[in-house]
Design goal:
This protein is α/β, with parallel strands linked by helices. The protein has 14 helices and 17 strands.
Length: about 400
């Protein structure tokens, strides 16, 4: 953290802070926010700057409008929610570059805040475009990146824009926390036993993580679609279970098994699974050993023995990281494994363990059990969290250091 400037390194009096936030929040069909964690976590950064009588210009993306303005993807719906959280009026402008936008920023008084329209209404945002970055740079004196959720993206406002601010660039409090907590794991500094639970459908995005953490983790629990490639290379029958068909994945997994033979016993796979004859909630189900799934059936959740085993490991852990569900938890009949894990992590945290949970599905399952507030820290970026766990410096952080 020493090389990275934070908002604490600046006094924002009479300065305009251009803050890149990640307000790409989930909404329902009524356009109502269903989870405002990302917004809540940016409030301390905003309040610090406002308290010093700085101007604030907020820039963010929302959804995938494909480079064209669209009412469905406008950020205007955030104004009321932000104003309520900050207890001041949040102004809004329907563009994020151009003379009219600059005029709007200049009219803003110190101690006031302006939210600009969706960056992705301009196709240049996702193309690391120098001209677009230059236009955005006219809107502030100090660049602040507090958007951990997109810090792994090579997008204009993340990697190119900071170049125009020289020494006057930094990260916000949200980014600082994310980096600090992830470093606790990556440096193996957490109190032992350290347990890492990885789930979700794709193993390709997490193989590097397994290689990176196998040297310091005490337990690596693997569930969801991620577990089936392991079972397959061990000669098990996985039926029609979801699996990434990739020979490179199989070769890499075999290499891990060979390279870390003395450590392989720390990897815990499910022993039993709930299988179904179709990919829907109302399908026929039964519980079988994970290595004996018949053709025409697919594993959709971890079974009761595996739930008990995973929870037993969680209960004796003192540092826990979780990313990805262990089953198709959005189907109620296949959500027990993920919900049980969520409750076990929350309960262990209440007893003194440190827990870090990331990824939209994992956080959603915590909310199902009303235990998201019992977790030590909810990471605001699933993809960024995964990139960090591969021991890679995120592009958004590199852009601040340089």
């Amino acid at each position: 953290m020493k090389k990275i400037k934070t908002v604490d390194d600046f006094n924002f009096e009479n300065q305009t802070a251009l803050i890149r936030v990640d307000f790409n929040v989930p909404i329902n069909e009524l356009h109502e926010i269903t989870d405002d964690t990302r917004i809540q976590y940016t409030i301390p950064t905003i309040q610090k700057i406002l308290s010093e009588k700085g101007k604030i210009v907020l820039i963010s993306h929302f959804g995938r409008p494909k480079g064209a303005p669209s009412k469905a993807f406008s950020l205007k719906f955030l104004v009321q929610h932000l104003s309520k959280l900050l207890k001041i009026t949040v102004n809004f402008f329907e563009n994020c570059i151009g003379d009219s936008t600059i005029k709007k920023v200049n009219e803003l008084k110190y101690g006031e805040i302006l939210l600009l329209e969706n960056l992705r209404f301009h196709k240049e945002e996702e193309k690391e475009n120098e001209n677009f970055a230059y236009e955005l740079s006219k809107l502030g004196d100090i660049y602040v990146n507090d958007a951990f959720g997109v810090a792994h993206r090579y997008h204009t406002s993340i990697t190119i824009l900071p170049k125009f601010f020289g020494e006057k660039k930094c990260i916000g409090f949200l980014m600082k926390k994310e980096i600090q907590y992830l470093n606790q794991f990556l440096l193996g500094k957490g109190e032992r036993p350290i347990s890492v639970l990885l789930g979700g459908a794709k193993i390709s995005s997490k193989i590097e993580i397994i290689e990176n953490i196998i040297g310091f983790a005490d337990y690596i629990l693997i569930g969801g679609g991620m577990s089936y490639p392991f079972i397959k290379i061990k000669g098990g029958m996985i039926g029609d279970s979801i699996i990434e068909k990739n020979q490179i994945i199989e070769k890499t997994l075999k290499k891990i098994f060979h390279k870390y033979q003395d450590k392989i016993n720390i990897i815990h796979l499910p022993k039993d699974v709930v299988i179904a004859d179709s990919f829907k909630n109302e399908s026929n189900t039964k519980i079988v050993p994970i290595h004996s799934i018949p053709n025409g059936w697919m594993g959709l959740d971890i079974g009761p023995y595996s739930i008990k085993n995973f929870c037993k490991i969680i209960e004796k852990s003192k540092t826990i990281l979780w990313n990805g569900p262990v089953g198709v938890f959005e189907f109620s009949n296949f959500s027990l494994g993920t919900r049980s894990v969520a409750k076990a992590i929350a309960n262990r945290t209440e007893k003194g363990a440190f827990s870090l949970v990331g990824g939209g599905d994992s956080i959603a399952s915590l909310k199902m059990e009303n235990c998201e507030k019992k977790i030590s820290y909810l990471s605001t970026g699933g993809g960024a969290m995964l990139s960090s766990l591969k021991n890679k410096t995120l592009p958004g952080i590199s852009a601040i250091i340089l």
